[in-house]
Write a structure and sequence with these properties.
The protein is of the alpha/beta class. The chain has 44 helices and 28 strands. Strands 17-14-16-15-19-20-18 form a 7-stranded antiparallel β-sheet, with helices on both faces. A 5-stranded antiparallel β-sheet has the order 5-6-12-8-9. Strands 21-23-22-24-25 form a 5-stranded mixed β-sheet. α1 packs antiparallel against α3 and α32 crosses α44.
Length: about 1000
Amino acid sequence: MAARLAPGLERRLRSEMTGDVLFDRFSRGRYATDASFYQIMPMGVVVPRTVEEAERAIALARSEGIPVLPRGGGTSQCGQTINEALVVDGSKHLKRILEVDLEGRRCVVEPGIVLDDLNAQLKQHGLWFPVDVSTASRATIGGMAGNNSCGGRSLRYGTMRDNVLSIDAMLADGAKAHFGRVDHNLSELPPDSPLAPLARDLLALGGREAAEIAARFPKVQRRVGGYNLDSLVPNPAGYNLSHLLVGSEGTLAYSTKIELKLWPLIGKKVLGACHFGSFYAAMDAAQHLVKLKPIAVELVDATLLKLASEIAMFRPTLERFVRGQPEAILLVEFAEDDDENERRLKLLADTMGDLGFGWDRSGANWGGVVEIRDAGLQAAIADVRTSGLNIMMSMKDAGKPVSFVEDCAVPLEHLADYTDRLTQVFEKHGTRGTWYAHASEGCLHVRPVLNLRLEKDVKAMRAIAEDAFAMVREYKGSHSGEHGDGMVRSEFHEPMFGSRLVHAFEEVKDRFDPKGLYNPGKIVHPPKFDDRTLFRYSPDYRVEGLQAALDWTGYSGAGGGLQGAIEMCNNNGACRKSAGGVMCPSYRVTRDERDVTRGRANTLRLAISGQLGPDALASDEMMETLKLCVSCKGCRRECPTGVDMAKMKIEALAARVKAKGLTLHQRLVAYLPHYAGLASKAAWLMNVRDRLPGAAALSEKLAQFSARRSLPRWRTDAFREEATTFGPEGGREVVLFADTFNRWFERENVDAALSVLTAAGYRVHMPAPVDGTKRALCCGRTFLSAGLVDQARAEARRVLSTYAPFVARGVPVVGLEPSCLLAFRDELPSLIPGEDTQRLAAHALLIEEFLAREAEAGRLMLPLGPVADRALLHGHCHQKSFGVMGAVEKTLRLIPGLKVETVESSCCGMAGAFGYHSETIDVSLAMAELSLLPAVRKAEAGTLVVADGTSCRHQIHDGAQRDAVHVIRVLAASLEAARADAPRHLEAAE
C-alpha cells in the first residue's frame, strides 16, 4: 500500500488550485482500486474545478516528473484507472455540455459528464447518445472514450469509436490539439499546428503497417485491444484522428472536449424473452436470431437468474417474465414502429419453432418466447441485465467471479463451440463460469469463480487465460471485446497482434508521450497480469484482531464474517448514480469519493487490514469518512452485492466509542428513550432552548445541535397507555408498538392507530414491559446511532421477552415509525441471533403493511370517507430499503377519491439526528433540496403531504413550511369522515 510521496507537487497544487487536493493516506486509498482485482496506491489526487485547472495540474506534475492518471467514474474492470501517479478526477466538476447542435445531431461535452446525466439533458430534444453501457449511471464520457465502450445496443449503434466525432486534448508536452476529421494529405492542418508533425508520423506508421494490420487485426466489431492503428491505414476519404485516442486508456493525451454523434430517441420497444433448456442451444441460436435485425440480443444464464432471485429488488421482476427453469434466456429487443415490432415478434416465435424449440418439448429443445410489451417491465428487465456484474459478485463465498477473460469476442457462428470449450477449460481447473451480456456480438461476459488469495487459483487464472485467448485467436476473434486492456490483457497483445504490431503500439506511445507522463504500464510495457503484489488481496494482506459487535453470519473472514461483508464491495460504483432509488444521498450532494458507499467500504477494508495505520477503524479520519453516511439503508437494497453501510457504520462507531468515549451530542441522542419520560413531565423546561434568545446558539456550542434547526417539542400530554388491551374481545389480535418518537412527540399518530385498528375490529395489545420497569419499550435505534451496541442489545432483549408470547401464537407486531419498527427485521437479528428474534422479525410489520395485507385478504372492514383529492407521498428511506412503499400507496388508495403521487426522492436529509447536527445541517438541507422540498412547494394547498418518518415530517416543515402527516392519520380522518358522512380536514399536531 506504500506509494512514493510527492510533497513538492502537493505544495504547488495547493497554492494554485481551487479544487480538492488530496494527498492524505485515507483519500489516496479510496482511489487505489477500481472494479478490477488490482490495487495501486496513487501519489495524490486532484479534483479540478475547471478544465484549465486540470491542465495546470498536469503541467505541474510534468515539471515534477510525476505520472498522471486521468480518471472518471473509476469503474474499469482491467485496472486502467489505478496507477502510482497523480490522479486527475474529472467526475465531480468537469461535466458541462458545451454545445448542442440539434440539426447536426451532435454535441460537445467535458470529459467528466456521466452518460445518464447527458442523456437526461438530451431527452428534451428527442436525442440521445446510444453507447448504453451497463454502468451508464456513473460512467463518464471521458472514461468511455478512453475505453472504447460498446454498450448493449452496439449491434445497431456501434461502439464509442463509431460515435466520437472529435476530441480536443492536451499532449504530454503541454501542447493543445484538435483531433478530428482530416483530409488524406493533412492539407487543412496549419504548418505550425502541434498536431501536424505528429499526424504525419502517425499516418506514415499506418501506411507502413497497413498489410500487417489487415492480417492481424480481428474482423469483429468488438475489438478494443491495443491502439486503433486501423484508423491510420491509407484512406483516400481521409481520417478521423480522434479514433486513435478512443480506446487509448488515457495513455496518449488528456481529453478536454469530446464531440459526440447523437441519435433520435428509441421509440416504442418490444422484447422477446427467448427461453432455452440448454445453454449450448441458446448460444447456437444467437446467430439465427440476429438475422431478424433486433437492436440487441442479451444473455442471462441460469446462474445469474438464481442469484438475482435471491436479491429483493430483482425477485419481483423475474417472477413476471421467467417461465420454468431455463438454462439461458436471450433477450431479443426490437425498436421499430408498432406494426413492424409485432411482425418481428411473430417472426421471432416462428424462428424459435423452426429451430426446434417448444414449450411442450423437453431437454435441450424445451423453450419458447415470452413477449413483453410493457415498458415498465422492459426497464426492470434491463436493470437486471445491466446489473449482471454486481449480481454475479453477490456470492458471499471467498471465491468470486473474476474478470480477465470476460469479454472475449468471437464470430457468432463459433459462439456455441467457444462457450462449450471454455466451460471445459473451467472444469479442468476445478471451477465454473458465469455468463451474461452481448450474445448479438459474440461478446459474452464470463467470469470463472476463483479465490485470488490462493496461489493455486492465481496459477489457474493464468492457465485459463492462456487457453481462452488461444481459442479466441483460433476463431479469429478478439481477446479484448469491450472492457479494454489495462493490466489484465495488455500482456497478451503479442500473441494476439504479433510482435511487429506490438512494436508499432510502442512507437505510438513513444511518439505521443516519450517520457511516460500519461498512465504508464497500460497497453504497452505492462506488468505481468498475475503479479500478486499488484492485487487488491496481495500475498501479505491480513485482517487480524477484528472484533465485531454485531452478528455477520453468512459472510467469511475475521470478525465473525465482518471482514467478508466489507469485502463484498467490488468497486463497480452503482452507488455513484445521481438519480433513482435512494443510494447514496450524501454522494448526490457532495460528489466526493469519500461520501459514496464504495469509498466508505474501501476505507473500511483498508482500515481493518492495517493499510491505514494502527487503530484506523476508530480514528478521526474514519469518522470523517462516515460522517455523512445517513444510515439510509439504500445500499442494503440497491447495492446488488449487498454492502450494508448502515450496519457497518455501527461497527466503526462501536470501535470509536470503545476507544474515545461519547460526545455530549451522542449521549443526548442515544439515551433519549431513557430520559424521555422525565423530560415530558418538564416539557416547559426542555422546550426553552427554542424560545429563549441565545439558548439555541448555546446548545450548538455545547452539544452541536444546530441553532438553525428547531428541536422536536416535548409535550406533557405524551402517550401513556391507560390499558394494555384495546378493541373488541374476540377480534383478530395485533400488537401495537409505540415507538419513542411518536409516543413522546406526536401522540396523535398512536391515537390514530388505535382508532383505526379498533374500528376495524382488531384486538390491540400494548403490553407492559415484562421486566417490571415503567420505562416504555424501545427498539434500540438511538443507541445504535452512537455505537452503543450493548445498550441496544439490552433494549432488544426487553422487546423480545415482552412480545414473545404474542409472536409465539402468530400475532403481528405493528409499528408506526419505519426506522424503529424495521429495526426488528434488520438490526435485532444481528444483535441477538436466534429463533426468537427471527420469529419477531417475521411478524414485524409497519402499520401500512399490515393494513394493505388485511385489505388484500378481504379482512379489513373499515368504513372510509373522502378527505382530499390528492396526496403527495414521500417515502422514508427504510420503507424503500425494505420494499414497503407499495404497501403505503395501497393503503392510501383505500381512501375514496384520493389520488396518490409518490415523490421520486432519495433521503429527506434529516436521518434521525443527522439533520440537527451543526456539522451536517448544510448537507441535510441540500439532500432535501434535490427533489423532496421542490416537489412539496409545488403541491397545491389542498394536497395532503404524507410522510411516515418523524424526521421526514420535520424536514418538510422546516424546509417547505408545510405540515406533513403520517398515513395512519389520513386513514383516521377518512374514518371520521365516513362516520360523519362529510369530509373532514386534518388538523396539524399541536
